[in-house]
Amino acid sequence: MSEQTLQNEDKTDQSKSKQEPIVKYEDVHKSFGDVQVLKGINLDIMPGEKVAVIGPSGSGKTTIIRMLMTLEQPTSGHIIVDGQYLWHMEQDGKLVPANEKHLREVRGDIGMVFQHFNLFPHMTILENCMTAPIHVQKEDKESAKKRSIEMLEKVGLGDKLDNYPSQLSGGQKQRVAMARALVMRPKVMLFDEVTSALDPELVGEVLEVIRDIAKEGEMAMVLVTHEMEFAIDIADRVLFLDEGVIAEEGPPSQVIENPTNERLQTFLHRFRS
Amino acid sequence: MTPRVRLPHPGGLTLFLMLDQSFYKGVIIIFSTIGEVFPVLLKGIEITIVVLVLSAIFGYLFAFIAGLCRLSNNLILRKFTGFYVEVFRGTSLIVQLFWLYYAIPMLFGFDLGSNLLAGVLAIALNYGAYMSEIVRGSILSVAKGQTEAATALNMSRFQRMRFVIFPQAVRMMLPEFGNYLIQMLKATSLVSLIGMTDILYHGNILRSSDLSAAPTVYFLVLVFYFIIALPLIFLTRKMEDISKKGVAS
Questions:
Q1: Radius of gyration over alpha carbons of chain B, in Å?
Q2: Does A122 touch chain B (CB under 8 A)?
Q3: Architecture of domain A118-185
Q4: Domain residue limits, chain A
C-alpha cells in the first residue's frame, strides 16, 4: 500500500479523489523509557474525514496525534502524510530518519489545537494569527492580515483583534487558537482535548466553532475528546484506544451506542453515569 | 521676679548636647570643604559613565552570545562557554582586571593598548558571565507549550526562537539585567586602580594631598554614585512592569 502511495506523482489529485488516505499509520510503536504507550497502531485517515479518538487516560490518545504533529517521535513504524513519509526520508533508495528540513516540508499540511491553548502571550490576538502565514508561508502581510481578521470574525472574536491573550476567557483563547491554526490552511487538523481545560460553561462555545469547521468538510479532523455526545454528533468514525492499541473502531452509532468490546462498555458506562 | 524657665531633665540634656556636638562637628567637617571637592570629582564623572556604558553594551552582548552558546547543540561550543562562565564567575573581578592590564601584556606580549579597553573588557567579561546564566535560564523557562505551538505552525528552529521564545525570554531577563546594570556602575570604580581618572580616582588623589578631606571626599563619592544609580533604579522598576505584562499565561 505504502509503496503505491509513494509512487503517486499527482498527490493533490489523489487526495481530492478520496481514494488515498491523507494520513496513514503503519505499525507505529511508541515508548517513553520503559513504558510502552503505543503497541502497533495501523490507521488510515481519509481527506475530509472526521475521526474521534476516545479511551481511558494513559491509553496513548494524545501521543497518536502528537506524533503526527512531529512533537513526539515514533519508536518504530511509519507515518505517511499525503504520500510522503513524515519521520523518514529517502536517501539513496533507503529510508533514513528525517531532518528538520524534511519535517518542515511534510508537517505543513497539519495543524493542531492544544488542551492549554498555548497562545503567544506577548502578541495580540491578530499577531498570534498572522505571524506564521507571513513568516512561514511567506504570504504578503496585507493578505495574511485580511485572512486572519476574517478567521477571527468567523470564530466570533472580530472585536478583540488588538487584545492580548491574558485579557480573554478560556473559551475565547481556545477560539483564537483555532483561528490561528486554520489560517495556515491545514489539510488535517488535530484537536487535543481542547475542552478539558475549560470551565464547563465555556465548553459549548468552543464545540460550536468546531462543529462549524467540521461542516465545511474539506479538512480532515482528528479529535481526542471526552465529549461523547459531541463525538457522536460530528465524527464519521470513532476509535477506542485501550492499552496502546485500537481496540475498537467504527461509526459512532456502532462504537459508542452499541459497543461490543467489554472494556469499552465499562469505559462508556463511567461517562453515562 | 525672675522669669521661670523650664529645664529638661539634667542627665538627658547632657547626653543630647554631646550627641548634638559630635554630630554637628561631622556635618561641619563634611560641608566646609564641599565646595572644593565637588568640582574635582565632577571631572571624573565622564570617565565613569563612559566605562559604564561601554561595559553594559559589551556585557549584554557577551551575555547573549554565551547564553545562546550554552544552549547550542554543539558540545564543544557548550563546554567551552561553560568553562568561560565558570572561570569568570569563580574569580574576582579585580584580579581579572589586573590580569588583563598587567599580566597578560607581559606574558604574551599582547597589549590591549589602553586602560579603557582593559577596564571595559574585564567588567564586560565578568558581568557577561553572570548574565549569560540569566539569558540561558530565561530561555529555558519559557513554557514548553510555546515551542510546541510554534512547531505546530511549522516554524523553523530559528523562527521559533526569534518570534516566540526570545521575545518572552527577554521580558524575563529585563529586571535582572537592570540589577546587574547597577552593579556594573559600582564595579566601574575599580578602573581607578589601573589609572583611569574616574570619580574615585580624583577622590583618592584629593585625599592623598589633604588627609583631612577624606570624609568630604568619600561622602561626595557616595553621593555621585547614588545619583548616577537613581535613573538606573527607576529603569529597573520600569523593566519589572514591562516584564509582568509580557508573559502572564
A1: 26
A2: yes
A3: Up-down Bundle (1.20)
A4: 2-109+186-272, 118-185
Structural domains in chain B, CATH included, are 45-243 (1.10.3720.10)
Quick one: how far is CA A172 from the chain centroid? 19
DSSP of A180-212 = HHHHT--SEEEEESTTTTS-HHHHHHHHHHHHH
Q: Which CATH class is domain A2-109+186-272?
A: alpha beta
A69–B contact, CB cutoff 8 A: yes
> The complex's ipTM?
0.87
Q: Going residue by residue through chain B (249 aa), what tens digit of pLDDT does each one get?
A: 555 666 555 556 666 666 666 777 777 777 777 888 888 888 889 999 999 999 999 999 999 999 999 999 899 999 999 999 999 999 999 999 999 998 888 887 776 678 899 999 999 999 999 999 999 999 999 999 999 999 999 999 999 999 999 999 998 898 899 999 999 999 999 999 998 889 999 999 988 988 888 888 899 999 999 999 999 999 988 888 887 765 544
Best of A86, A114, A122, A183 to mutate (most B CBs within 10 Å, chain B): A122
- State the Cα–Cα distance between residues B61 and A46, nearest whole angstrom: 51
Q: How far apart are the first and last CA of chain A?
A: 43
* Chain A residues with beta carbon closer than 8 angstroms to that of B159: 135-136
What residue has cell string 465548553?
A203
Percentages helix, strand, coil for chain A (3-state, rounded to 5) are 40, 25, 35
